Amino acid sequence: MKRTSPQKRTTIYDLAELAGTSASAVSAVLNGNWKKRRISAKLAERITKLAEEQGYALNMQASVLRRERSKIIGMIVPKYDNRYFGSIVEQFEALARERGLFPIVTCTRRDPALEVEAARAMLSYQVDCLIATGATDPDRIVDLCAASGVRTVNLDLPGSRAPSVISDNYGGALELTRRVLANCEREYGVKAPLLFVGGRGTDHNTMERMRGFRDAHAEAGIPVDETLVLPCGYAPEKAEQAMRQLAGRTHDLPRGMFVNSTISLEGVMRWIRHSGHYAERMPHLGCFDWDPFVAMLGDHIEMVRQDVPNMLQAVFAIIDSGATEPTVVQVPPIMEKVG
Fold this sequence. Notes:
The protein has 12 helices and 14 strands. Strands 2-1-3-4-5-13 form a 6-stranded parallel beta sheet, with helices on both faces. It has helices at residues 12-19, 23-30, 41-53, 60-64, 83-98, 112-124, 138-146, 169-188, 204-219, 236-249, 262-275, 308-321; strands at 72-77, 102-107, 129-133, 151-155, 164-167, 195-197, 199-200, 229-230, 232-233, 256-259, 284-287, 301-305, 328-331, 334-338. Helix content is 44%, strand content 17%. It is an alpha/beta fold. One of its GO terms (molecular function) is transcription cis-regulatory region binding. This is LacI family fructose operon transcriptional repressor. It comes from Shinella fusca.
């Protein structure tokens, strides 16, 4: 068998020879410091073009050591599998690039150990800032980053040691519950408590949504049935299991539901389809999440759309201002009527 030697990597010295200039000039261009060195735009353009043609890859970790900032910004997210977190990632990347920053994103699957591992990996690349989105323990990530002199901003779930940007979960849940209660009363002519399903009872967002859920019932003079409050987690299979167990205890199921995310809604709808319950008429649903495909379910649903554009604008306003105080910015969500 013939052995092939690996192709020699292009160096800055090779580029300098091709461009007819010094290695230090090439380094300045590739690191973005050519204007300070009074290198002409024409030479900078020639060096950049040569680097692309030769397949030269800048050693980012080595170059960071020679610069004050890396211009890398990191984000951790718990999930990619719904429109909310997908939209956060997409718009984060766009806003980062508008500012000349290079975005790095990784999914941590709501696993505290993976969150810490991801934060440590990003610190090794010397990110300038880390956005902790939906972190289970944001304060631990803040402490880890602070030890390396890296700023952190919390998104979606708040912490107590860094600025946080979240939805107004209480206000959104209050209005969503009001609407579903009114829809049920209008159609059935009776006031009855709703079912609450999905989310984690220990996280801030779910607790605030349950608070809004309960206060809307109190406004309407309807006692909450605590056996119908099921913060079973976000996974579809957990919502499906919770519905199955509830139906095993009683066949008199509520005519209205508050579902805590489209991920949980997937499990609820799967159970409805397979169980045969609500075969004659769909219950009125309220979902604290948004997806246009839910329009396929008909006109018995209200949705809360979290205002991702304004949430990320608030995140970058904090970053641009240099603020580090652990304040919480609450962005009002948008009510969406489907059908």
